[in-house]
Amino acid sequence: MLKRIEELIGTDCPDLPSLLDGLPVGVALLDNEGHVLMLNKALEAMTGYTREEVRGLPCRHVLRSRACLQDCPHGKDAAPGVGIETDCINRHHRKIHVRITPVRVLDGNNRPICVLDVVEELTALREIEARLSQVADHGQIVGRSPAMKKILGLVPVIAQHDTPVLITGETGTGKDLLAESVHKASPRSREPFVRFSCGPMPSELLDAELFGRMQGPDGKLKTGRFQQAQGGTLYLSEIADLPLSQQSSLVRFLDEGTIVPVGAGKPMRASARLMASTAESPEKLVQEGRLREDLFHRISAIRLHLPRLKDRGEDLGFLLHHFMGHYATRFKKNIAAISPKAQRHVYAHDFPGNVRELKNIMEFAAMVCSGDTIRTEHLPMHLTDDAETEAPVRPVEKSRKAGRKNTEER
């Protein structure tokens, strides 16, 4: 049959199998009844079957796709040359995302000779799309202000490289979430994201926590954060809190890619992307001698600054409703709105704790709210304590005032 097809195609194609094997995409050569005549090498690797094993079988037994049952591209109503995206199950029971495009081969009299099923694997593309979509999931950093759109637009680009990243911004602006977002959008996303807070700690214990420790007579390694983050990302929160000796070890890692565990006689290779953050100006930290200048220059090759919540324009309203919806779902409540007066109390607050504080406020409000609208009485007390103190009124006036208050809340 193959020889006959080669003859019908013409003398310009003396060796069809070799031609198909040279293609970088999978190809199944089918007869007009949909039986397999051959697979090229790319499709053999994709499916796990050899061309000899499947010759003569219906194509649905080889590609094993959902489309074979629901939307076969060889159907009578299928448009010629139009591909479909679907899943195939290969010989090893692995699900593969593919695009299948049927190409009908006709002779000089416009009669069908055979069909070429072109099969493109989309698994790698889907994994990249999934990593990027995770950046906007609940628990990840979000925003609509120009400043945040610029930062979020940089995340997919920054994520594709292993260059160190320094994130600055006040407490509660989302530095930890931004670091994790970069990790999740990167090729390292399947490997660990390890966070370490650089708080006060005895020097030797800190070395062991970061770089590991050789212990016991056989020299067994107790892993530190660098070993735990192998292949992934190590994120150091408030890096200026590290003593200068440990900062020196970080400089060596960034220069040589090696660390020295406590008790080890020689350096050890480490493969982790380093990210760090600080709530203070790094230039000021360098001037004060709390951050080594050489470390600062190495970790700030990529530098991202998160602005205060009050400087993020429309993000305050956007995040307020974002967190309200998130916690309404989490607490299984039908909260759909926040009253104008309660919203004014929120907007008037200065938010020294930035986004984290707003998140906590909306979590509390959603937790105590018993209706479908968050009102003033559902807000934490520190937001309403600054309200004007009302003068004492007679019972009748008080009743009327209560009525006006309820009207405003509605």
Number of structurally distinct domains? 3
Q: Would you identify the CATH architecture of the largest domain?
A: 3-Layer(aba) Sandwich
The termini sit apart by 79 Å
Quaternary state of the chains: single chain
Strand content: 15-25%
Please mark out the parts with pLDDT under 50 across 5 or more consecutive residues, or reply none.
8-12, 132-139, 388-410
Name the CATH homologous superfamily of the largest domain: P-loop containing nucleotide triphosphate hydrolases
What is the makeup of the main sheet? 5 strands, antiparallel
Question: Could you characterize what this model shows?
Answer:
This protein is of the alpha/beta class and 410 residues long. The chain has three domains: 2-121, 2-Layer Sandwich (Beta-Lactamase); 128-307, Rossmann fold, CATH 3.40.50; 310-409, Helicase, Ruva Protein, domain 3 (Orthogonal Bundle). Helices cover 41% and strands 18% of the residues. It contains 19 helices and 16 strands. A five-stranded antiparallel β-sheet has the order 2-1-5-4-3. A five-stranded parallel β-sheet has the order 7-10-13-6-14.
